[in-house]
Amino acid sequence: MDEGSIVFGAIAVLLVAGLFEAGRWAHYWGDAARAAGPAAHAAQPAEPATDAEDPLTDGASPGPGALLGTLASTSALTTVVGLAVLYAPSLLFALTLLEPIGSFSVAFRRDFGALLACIFDAWAAAHLPCALATLPIALLVGNAGQGWLLILALRGLAVIGFVALMVPALRTVFGARAAASVAASLLAFLPYALQGILAWLASPFLLYYLWLYFRGDLSDVGWSLSARRSLKRHLEAATVNPRDADAHVQLGLIHLRRRQVVEARGRFERALEIDPDEVDAHFQLGRLARLDSRWEDAIRHFEAVVAKDERYARHEVWREIGATYLGSGALEHARWALERFTSQRPHDPEGLCLHGDVLLALERRDEARARFQAAIEAADTTPGYRRHEVREWRKHAARRLGAV
Question: Which of 302, 312, 258, 297 is nearest to 282 (CA)?
Fold first, then answer.
């Protein structure tokens, strides 16, 4: 994502797909070698295999130059084009429906380059071992009978490995949840199965008009990818300055968005070593400590934030304090902090849900019911572009309201 090349990934996919195609035809050389043995002279000539006996072939036996011809065939090239034109956009579109990453057009310009580099590398890495195993199976066993079943099983394993690699890639590129990453990776195979129609789109005139229509978006994709990489390089260069704590904070936020928690924590801690009063670093370390159930560390960091700015992040520090006290079981402290937050942010679904949870634990059921109803109303009136962000809290409020 930061150093990978889309061109290198495309070439890797092309070569690995060529290996798969070579394995598809390699059983003919194995059959020829077995037929040339001593026992073959006394035997009757075998009838050529029919299409029904060879479910992986679609025509007559290839000639002597079939291997090189297959490697250069459009099948391997169709795989590359299919991943770029069908699978990657479909995956991105599915993810925009499942995760709050923005509209498709915005996500396409911002993240398509990094996503495509990850797709190419993941596909090649997952399929390479299976492609290498296909060759000896086809030569020694053949594609008929158990041979073609083994080859199909290998291809299935390659697909499973590809999805398994795409899940951390999507979590890194978009910060998506694991379940949404799996679902989007699988849904994108539906349009990808139509890659056979790509040959009909090879008209030079059609390609020219498509280029004219999409060249602005494609240039934005290239610019966004290079800008993303340049930003990280510049920030890393800025960390050479021993007094620049903010550069470490910004790098930590990048790692945090990519779910790289260990690297993010290291950056925030380094920022505090440079400047012990760095409020952003204290706030993020407090949130990470709360997620790890290190309640005392979280409160210590949040107290440092409040000491510098009681209204930090539009009072969100009080929501984090309330959630920390709620997790630790200090209900009265949690109620006090969340009342302070909701008095300033009365339409925040997360804060209202947390406040309702505290009130419900304190057996103040009527007040809790009012908070959960307010959380549902706040989520329903949230602008459309933020609906994904508050959807989980609306569901939480509805479940709690039903329980009350």
Answer: 302
The set of residues, in sequence order, having a beta carbon less than 8 Å from that of 53 and lying 6+ positions away, is 144
CATH 1.25.40.10 residue ranges for the chain: 310-404
Dihedral angle over CA of 149, 155, 157, 161, nearest 10: 180
**3-state DSSP helix/strand/coil percent for the chain, to nearest 5?**
80, 0, 20
* Helix and strand counts by DSSP (H, E) for the chain: 19, 0
DSSP class of residue 95 equals H
Is this prediction's pTM over 0.85? Answer: no
Interatomic CA distance for residues 289 and 286, integer angstroms:
5
The CA-CA-CA angle for residues 107, 236, 105, to 5°, reads 5
CA 101 – CA 86 distance, rounded (Å): 20
| Three-state secondary structure call for residue 16 | helix
Mean pLDDT by 10 residues, the chain (404 residues): 82 90 65 54 48 44 40 66 91 90 82 91 94 77 63 86 94 87 93 73 63 64 70 74 87 86 93 94 97 96 95 95 96 96 95 96 95 95 81 93 87
Query: Letter for the amino acid at 192?
Result: Y
Name the fold adopted by 310-404.
Answer: 1.25.40
Q: How far apart are CA 24 and CA 33, in angstroms?
A: 17
Task: For residue 267, give the nearest of 238, 294, 296 by alpha carbon.
Answer: 238
The answer to whether residues 6 and 112 touch, using CB atoms and an 8 Å cutoff, is no
Residues contacting 60, CB < 8 A, separation 6+: none
